[in-house]
């Protein structure tokens, strides 16, 4: 699994000061002011280019504003406090400075005092819910760090050191540890894993990156397995250790248990199911999708090798 497959960390307290400021502004019924001065001393033909650039920027701004309005309307339309809490948690990464600025603008341009009060009340409620989500996330990250450490330590030797690639026994030990913590193998755990990989990359600790990648592979394989009476070729590769993929795929091809078309079709169905069943953009979705993509790439390599050898 590629170490380049990284994503942004979860929201932390450093993200909140700006939103708190906008919330305070709303409660004071004030609108934050911003001044943008632009001078253009270019010739007429260059002014046309500037106009085109401004037009493109305006289109982007309009789209961003429309998306923010849609999110605000979604919050306003919540039928219960529980529904609003879920909506805030699901959209926590969208509560940035632009969101609070747009909320302030909506309050300032409200058509009635009643609408202004609704938006002000919404701002206060969303802020409190966002704070609660951050506190919960911080607690989950602390727990996940401990869980991830226990999983990784399970593959170490008696001196607490790792030797890569892991032996089959060490891989099984890591899988067993992962199974014991499967109830806590959630977004927070995967987020912590990616955070550790980023830190290891900064420190040039390639061994730690490979170790965490191994854990992510085991997690993805476990999550993607669907026990059934008839195990397809894709099922067999998903369940197999990554180190044994190539000989297994070669065996499946040479014994005519699968074809390139059948394998690709089945794999595509798995990919679509993963994308539809998991939260869009989540670590869970991305780790599983990455695992399937790696299987696809490895199958194509082995299949091409078999074809080349058959032609020679």
As a percent range, the share of strand residues is: under 5%
> Which bin fits the share of residues in helices?
over 70%
Instruction: Tell me the count of domains.
Output: 3
Structural class by sheet pairing and helices: mainly alpha
Low-confidence stretches: 1-50
Anisotropy-based shape: elongated
The major pleated sheet works out as:
none
What's the total count of β strands?
Answer: 0
Radius of gyration: 26 Å
Helical element count? 12
Q: On the 0-100 scale, what is the average pLDDT? A: 81
Q: Please provide the ordered H/E string of secondary-structure elements.
A: HHHHHHHHHHHH
N-to-C terminal Cα separation, in Å? 32 Å
Could you characterize the architecture of this molecule?
Helices cover 71% and strands 0% of the residues. It is mostly helical. Helix 4 (97-108) runs antiparallel to helix 5, helix 8 (206-224) crosses helix 12 (283-311) and helix 11 (260-277) packs antiparallel against helix 12 (283-311). Residues 1-50 have low confidence and may be disordered.
Quick recap of the structure?
With 312 residues, the chain is mainly alpha-helical. It is 71% helix and 0% strand.
Key words describing this protein structure:
3 domains, mainly alpha, disordered N terminus, single chain, 71% helix, 312 residues
Task: Give the helices and strands, then pairings.
Layout: H1 16-27, H2 44-76, H3 81-90, H4 97-108, H5 113-153, H6 168-180, H7 187-202, H8 206-224, H9 233-239, H10 245-254, H11 260-277, H12 283-311
Helix pairs in contact: 1-4, 1-5, 2-4, 3-5, 4-5, 5-6, 5-7, 6-8, 7-8, 8-12, 10-12, 11-12
